[in-house]
Design brief:
CATH architecture of one domain: 2-Layer Sandwich
Largest sheet: 5 strands, mixed
Structural class: alpha+beta
Keywords: ATP-binding, Kinase, Membrane, Nucleotide-binding, Phosphoprotein, Transferase, Transmembrane, Transmembrane helix, Two-component regulatory system
Radius of gyration: 35 Å
Catalytic activity: ATP + protein L-histidine = ADP + protein N-phospho-L-histidine
EC number: 2.7.13.3
CATH topology of one domain: Heat Shock Protein 90
Helix content: 55-70%
Oligomer: single chain
CATH class of one domain: Alpha Beta
Order of helices and strands: HHHHHHHHHEHEEHEE
Number of helices: 11
Strand content: 5-15%
Strand order of the largest sheet: 1-2-3-5-4
Number of strands: 5
InterPro entries: DUF7134, HATPase_C_sf, HATPase_dom, Sensor_HK_TwoCompSys, Sig_transdc_His_kin_sub3_dim/P
Protein name: histidine kinase
CATH superfamily of one domain: Histidine kinase-like ATPase, C-terminal domain
Amino acid sequence: MTGMLTARPVPARSRAFDLFLAGGLCVTFGFLSLAQAHLEGFLAFGMLAPLVWRRTHPELVFYGVCSVALLQWLAQVQLMPGNVGLLVGLYAITVYGDVQQSRIALGIGGLGVLMATSRYWSNSDWKQQITMMVALGALVFGVWALGERRRTRGLYVAQLEERAAQLERDRDRESKLAVSNERTRIAREIHDVVAHGLSIMIVQADGGLYAADQSPEAAKKALATIGDTGRASLTEMRKMLGLLKQDEQRDLDPNQPRPQPGVSSLPELIENVRAAGLTVAYEVTGRPRDLPALLGLTAYRIVQEGLTNTLKHAGPGARTSVTLDFGREMLTVVVTDDGRGAGVAPSSDPGHGLVGMRQRASVSGGTVSAGPKAGGGYEVIARLPYNLPNGG
């Protein structure tokens, strides 16, 4: 019961849509029912108005709508357009509610079919009763199945996003571990350099001390060796300490340049997407060449965004292909799928969706075109020139 009373977080856009949906249904079906009879109109509004909270409190909305429907059945009020609120409530509890509550809602829907058939078609022959029972049952089960599919798809996408976030965290952890190991290695090398240099200097100093009286030339040579060894050791130690200082600055300053993925990282990205269940074909045509870091990163991010949107929008069983064509003057990146073609929706967040792709491509002097294919599916084509504008 606590779960039913706890409001779920809902984006402002979704809340506005729910308000528009409930208001539209009230205006359309509520007043249509009110035109038939006052009681029918009040019952219709009772089943349609609560839909405003169908995302935040799906269980309470469904049971509230069912309670109004039960009053309708007890009052022997005929079925009316406002009864569509029952189907919307069933869909809402299936998509946004608890899984167990969704199963209970399906059972209540089946019971409602039996009650409606026994009340509203009691005077009909048995063939008509069975026909109406099957039709209403198919409608209820169809709405529930549609909601269940939507829930499953949402959970699948959420798992993929969580997995991607976990991979990012693992990569950062591994990077920090690699930095720590590198610092340990540099510290050992510093120790070796200093210990080796000091050992030579001690030996030369002892030899020069003994030769100072008998062979001044040998003593001078020993002192020269001590100086050369000390300077060389000091130079090596400064280089290694400089490496450590660069690592510290990179950790403290997030704006410091870090290694970024490029075209060479695409096979690993595609393998990760394949592991998530998407069929991906990867092809490279033309003569591969070394790309500038910015251009390689742009191509990588465009492919990554295209595959991510295929996972989200193309539907189950979709197949996609990634093609890199190294032309004479530009790199052409093509990401296509044979799914539903919902494609890439522009996002308000920079760096996401079609807007983000075009922004990245424009920085590299390129262009991005995207849209549904004639035979179905969606296609993203990015053309990225090798030479940046203005000689960049």
